[in-house]
Design goal:
Length: 385
Amino acid sequence: MPVVAVVIPVYNHGACLRDVVERALRVHSPVLVVDDGSTDGGPEGLAGLPVECVRLGENRGKGAALLAGAKSAAARGATHMISLDADGQHHPEDIPLFLARIEQDPNALIIGRRDFSVPHVPAPARFGRAFSGFWMRAQTGIAVQDMQSGFRAYPLELFDCVRLTETRYSFEVEVVVRAAWAGFALCEIPIRVYYPPRGERISHFRLFRDNLRISLLNTRLTIRALLPLPFTCYAGASRDRLSPLRPLASLRHLLAHNATPADLARSTGLSVFVSTLPLPGLQSILLLLCVGWFRLHRAAAVSVAPLTWPPFVPGLCVLVGYRLRQGEWLTEFSIRTLGHEAWQRVFDWAAGALCMAPLLGLLTACIVGSAALGLARTLRKRREA
C-alpha cells in the first residue's frame, strides 16, 4: 500500500500558510512543511498544528525545498509525496484526487493540470505552460499540458533513479523530463486553481531570471536528447538496446516492447529523410522536433540516423547532384574537383540531398517495415507453437 506524505514548500508566505496547512490536514496527514529560509515568521504561525517542519536555514530555492521534503518523507516511511504551493493558489481539497490516482498507478508522476478558465491568470503563466509543453514534447515525445504546475504527486523512488541539477523553479521542468527518460509514467489530472488580483498576489517567481534558467535548462535537455545514447531507466522500465550494427536484434527488441512495424517504418523513414537534408548542424535538432511532435519512436529514429553520416550518403548526394547539374556523372576525383571546385561540390551535395532525401527515406521505411512485419509474424508463430 502506498504511504503518502503531503509536502508544502514555503518561502515568505506567512499570510496564507496556516490556512493552506489547516485545509490540507482536514483531508490527509502527515503534512510536512519545508521552510526555505523564510524571514516573515510564517512557519512560527503553525504553532498548535500537528505538522512537522523541515528548516533549510537559508533560501535555496523551490527545487531544493522539494528535495529536502522528499528526503524527510522517505525517512518517515513514505513511498509517495504530494507537493502543493503555500501561496493559496492550489486547493488542498483536491488532494484526494491524487490519492486515488496513486492507488491506480503507483509508479506514475502525477501532475495537476490547472484550470486556466478562472479570472486573473497571469500572462507569463500561460506563456510558460505553452513554452515548456512544446519543449517537453520535443525532448521526450510525450505531451504534457501543464509542465509548471506545482501540485503534483511523486513516487519517492524517482529521486533515487534520476540525477537532478536544478534547485529553483526550473526543477519542476527538469524532473518531469528526466522522469520520462527514466521510464516513469506521466499523467495529468484536472485541478482547481485560484489567482488573486494582481495587487494581492504573492509570488517569488522572477520573470527574467527564472525564465532564463528554464531556457538554459531546455537547451541542455535538448542537447542530451539529441545524443544517440540510451537513457538510464529505473528497474521497472524497459530499456532500448539498439544499434544499426545489429539490425535484426534491434528490431526484435523493439517488437518485444510493443512497437508496431508501421511505427518503426515511419520513424526510421523520417529519420533518414531528415538526416539526409542539406541542413548541416540542424538535422539532429529538426529530427528531434519531428520525432517528438509526431510521436514517433525516438529510439528507432536515433538508431538509424548514423546510416546517413559521411562518407557514403553525402558522397552519393554529391554524385547525384553533379548528374542533375551537369548532365553526366562525376568521374574525376582530384585536387581540382574536390579542392579548387569545393563550392561547386557543396551545391552538388545540396541538390542531390534534396533529391535523395525522400527516396532514401521511403526506401528505409519500406525495408524496415517489411523486415519488422516479417519478424513479427515469425515471433508470433513461435509463441503460438
